[in-house]
Structures are given as structure tokens and as C-alpha cells.
Amino acid sequence: MPKRPKYVISIFFLVVLVAGSLISGLFCRSRAGAAAMGADGSSMLSDGSSVKAADLSSSFDSNEVLSDSLYLYKVLSVRGAVQKIVRRESGNYVISLDGRGPGRAVVDCHLDSVYNARYLSLRNGDSVTLRGTCAGRLLNVILMQCIIEK
């Protein structure tokens, strides 16, 4: 049996060590992500409840970086009073929920396309809970693919 140089064996063990580290890192990251998911597979607030639209917009007003870390790309249930309903050219509805007063950010909820074909029975001032994915903040806080819960 021919003798192999020590550096070949060292490189082999190094490759095995790096591959093992990558695999365990991916496994641990996916497990941590699963721990943050709700029972139905969606991200929720830690207690599974909904957040007030005014509190959500106030959170983004006071500290956008922290709010992004808490809410960005997570599915949220947001409750509040309907400020306005707009039907966009695409046929999709956007419901704006109240902020904390004039000049403050509101929560714009872009409804899922399932609501395009039917008439919305909501009116300005109605209390509603919408569930959607937080897309962060531009001028207002934005929730995408929303459904009406209550």
C-alpha cells in the first residue's frame, strides 16, 4: 500500500469538517425558524394574539429597525378601524386601518385576490381584524395577501 502524503489526509479531514459544519448549521437554523412558527405554520406574535393597527404603526414610527426585526415577513393579525377602502386598477382592494392620529403612519392592508370578485361589506369606521404578511414600511406600514378574519 503506497504512503499518502500527510497534506492529502489533512485536506480530506478539513473538507469533512467544513461539510459537517455547514450541514449542522443549516439544520440548526431550520429548527430555530420552526420554533418561531405558529401551529398552522405561520409566524405569529409570541402569544398568538393580534396587534392593534395603531400600536403597529406607532412601533414603526418610533423604531423602524426594531419593528422590522419583530414583524417583517411575519404573518400578523391586525385589528383596527377602517379608515378608507380603495379599489386599485388591478381590481385588488387596499384597506387602510387607523394610525395614531393625523400625519401618523397607517396600516395599508392589500387584500388577497379572493376579495376581487365580491363586494366588500366593510365601511369607513368599521372595526375589523385582517391577517396578512408584513412587508415593512414605506410611507405606511404594509401588509400583503390579507384576509378578513372578523
Molecular structure report:
This protein is α/β, with parallel strands linked by helices and 150 residues long. The chain has two domains: 1-35; 51-148, OB fold (Dihydrolipoamide Acetyltransferase, E2P) (Beta Barrel), CATH 2.40.50.140. It is built from three helices and six strands; from the N terminus they run H-E-H-H-E-E-E-E-E. The chain has a five-stranded mixed β-barrel with strand order 2-3-4-6-5. Strand 5 and strand 6 form a beta hairpin. Helix 2 (53-62) packs across helix 3 (64-71). The longest helix has 30 residues, at 6-35. It starts with 5 loop residues before the first helix and ends with a strand.
Short description:
The protein is α/β, with parallel strands linked by helices.
- Distance from N terminus to C terminus (CA atoms, Å) equals 76 Å
Multimeric organization: single chain
User: Could you say which structural class the secondary elements and strand pairing correspond to?
Assistant: alpha/beta
Share of β-strand residues = 25-35%
Instruction: Compute the CA-based radius of gyration.
Output: 23 Å
Protein topology:
Blueprint: H1 6-35, E1 51-52, H2 53-62, H3 64-71, E2 75-87, E3 93-97, E4 107-111, E5 127-137, E6 141-148
